[in-house]
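To illustrate the input format used throughout this study, we show a single complete record. The first block contains the structure-token representation of the backbone; no residue identities are included at this stage. The design step must infer an amino acid for every position from geometry alone.
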């Protein structure tokens, strides 16, 4: 399918690897100029080179921490008028709720709620003026169902979801959409790291934790970044203008809800 976004400019936060990279690749394949971001210059430039070689796309690599004002400034200096914004950021490490400090709580809110809001505030009026905009937030299935040890992440991302729900309705008239993708367990470095930490909390081996997690998924596998990126690209496409304020759950069937 031609997504109708060739020539558009997309900013994809935290996209040197994992789900963010999957989104960057899918948008590059669709013909977008992509601004990718990460904090490790070596990893980021390697990703940029690989995407350029594979898709022939224009790829701009910005080394920055998107949680900071300076990092956001750097992204927007590279693409002052983005048509597509994919909000993504690392979440807090798993930790029992009794051990969460005030500082850790506030940092989680900055990473997973305040940062996407700040970036949206800076790009949405330009999108409205141009009559096209797609904002996709990568959140988590924990917005819908609790995940042990991820309480800070769950709370911050649920707050983000509520915040954007009203905003999505305010800007829809201008062909600007805001949607969320809620990943479950995807085969990423973050999943591997959280599996190790959760195994330690439960007193089992990482291998046992991996087998247990996979057994809980009706699809009997972890998701992959490529399929996640394709879903993101569709929500960013010209064909998704009538979809806004929605949560797309991608979890292999884990969440047992009918509605």
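Output of the design step:
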């Amino acid at each position: 399918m031609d997504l109708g976004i060739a020539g558009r400019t997309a900013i994809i936060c935290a996209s040197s690897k994992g789900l963010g990279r999957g989104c960057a690749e899918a948008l590059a394949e669709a013909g977008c100029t992509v601004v990718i971001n990460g904090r490790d210059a070596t990893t980021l430039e390697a990703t940029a080179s690989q995407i350029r070689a594979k898709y022939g796309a224009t790829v701009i690599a910005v080394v920055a921490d998107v949680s900071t004002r300076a990092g956001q400034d750097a992204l927007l200096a590279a693409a002052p008028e983005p048509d597509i914004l994919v909000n993504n950021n690392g979440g807090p490490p798993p930790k029992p709720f009794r051990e969460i400090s005030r500082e850790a709580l506030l940092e989680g809110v900055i990473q997973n709620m305040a940062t996407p809001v700040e970036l949206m505030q800076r790009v949405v009026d330009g999108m409205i003026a141009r009559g096209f905009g797609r904002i996709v937030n990568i959140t988590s299935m924990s917005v819908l169902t609790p995940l042990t040890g991820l309480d800070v992440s769950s709370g911050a991302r649920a707050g983000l979801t509520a915040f954007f729900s009203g905003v999505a309705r305010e800007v829809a008239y201008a062909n600007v959409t805001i949607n969320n993708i809620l990943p479950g367990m995807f085969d990423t470095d973050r999943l591997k790291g959280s599996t190790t930490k959760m195994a330690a909390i439960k007193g089992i081996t990482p291998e046992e934790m991996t087998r247990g997690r996979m057994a809980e998924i009706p699809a009997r596998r972890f998701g992959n970044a490529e399929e996640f990126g394709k879903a993101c690209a569709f929500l960013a496409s010209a064909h998704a203008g009538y979809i806004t304020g929605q949560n797309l759950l991608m979890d292999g069937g884990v969440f047992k809800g009918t509605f």
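Structural context for interpreting the output: The two ends are 29 Å apart (CA to CA). Residues 67 and 110 are 7 Å apart (CA to CA).
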